[in-house]
């Protein structure tokens, strides 16, 4: 993992606030407890108590709710620069699970570390609150997608959102991005069957909009995909620092 000054989280928070040397030093301390997790094994279980939060430094994670019948609904995917379990630090138990999709690296952040950081650097606390609010806005969009968008628009919106999130941390462009998600991940996130996901991706490819193959999303007609999804990125709030 790199130092906090060059971390994905720093790049992400810099979209909201121009970080000072003091704030960068506090972020460096938050990155001290560095851990690795293997894919496919939950790092946090739904209902687990006394949890730390994590700053994802490398790899992808999915957060999900497990249903009584054993099925799951993926709530979101986390990419480098995202916090994992920030809400669970303040709640008594974690209300959902986190599973690494690939082997990951993350910094463990204890509740005491986080509260100390907030007390020392209120602007950094505000920036982290911005990141948490942005995550909540994405969950709202996912709810709208599942409830109101047809399958093609839902998929298009999801792929565009991922691209915007990855661009913020230097991992994606309007040409495309690497993506380790399977059709089963997409199905559990978008409320579709894996067969339906396959059909939708084929249709988007055949209409010349986007190809998702061999772990890579390739945008062929970015603006056309935006039109199909009616994608307005304002909710991602990535236009530049609000605080200097």
TrEMBL record:
Classification via Pfam families: cNMP_binding (PF00027), HTH_Crp_2 (PF13545)
Membrane-crossing segments per the record: none
Protein known as: CRP-like cAMP-binding protein
Database matches in CDD domains: CAP_ED
UniProt KW keywords: DNA-binding, Transcription, Transcription regulation
Gene Ontology terms: biological process: regulation of DNA-templated transcription
Cyclic nucleotide-binding domain mapped to chain residues: 15-90
Residue ranges of domain HTH crp-type in the record: 149-223
Top-level division of the source organism's lineage: Bacteria
A GO MF label: DNA binding
């Amino acid at each position: 993992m790199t130092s906090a000054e060059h971390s994905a989280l720093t790049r992400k928070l810099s979209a909201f606030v121009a970080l000072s040397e003091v704030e960068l030093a506090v972020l460096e301390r938050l990155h001290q407890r560095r851990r690795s997790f293997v894919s496919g094994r939950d790092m946090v279980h739904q209902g687990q108590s006394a949890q730390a939060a994590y700053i994802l430094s490398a790899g992808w994670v999915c957060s999900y709710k497990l249903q009584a019948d054993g099925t799951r609904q993926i709530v979101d995917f986390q990419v480098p620069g995202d916090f994992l379990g920030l809400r669970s630090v303040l709640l008594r138990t974690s209300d959902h699970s986190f599973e690494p999709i690939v082997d990951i690296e993350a910094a463990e952040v204890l509740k005491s570390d986080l509260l100390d950081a907030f007390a020392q650097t209120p602007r950094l606390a505000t920036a982290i609150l911005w990141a948490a609010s942005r995550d909540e806005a994405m969950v709202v969009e996912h709810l709208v997608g599942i409830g109101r968008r047809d399958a093609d628009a839902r998929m298009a919106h999801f792929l565009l959102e991922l691209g915007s999130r990855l661009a913020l941390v230097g991992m994606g462009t309007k040409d495309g991005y690497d993506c380790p998600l399977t059709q089963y991940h997409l199905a559990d996130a978008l409320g579709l069957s894996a067969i339906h996901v396959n059909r939708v991706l084929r249709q988007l490819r055949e209409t010349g909009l986007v190809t998702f193959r061999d772990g890579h999303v390739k945008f062929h007609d970015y603006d056309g995909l935006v039109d199909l999804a009616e994608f307005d990125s304002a909710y991602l709030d990535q236009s530049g620092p609000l605080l200097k």
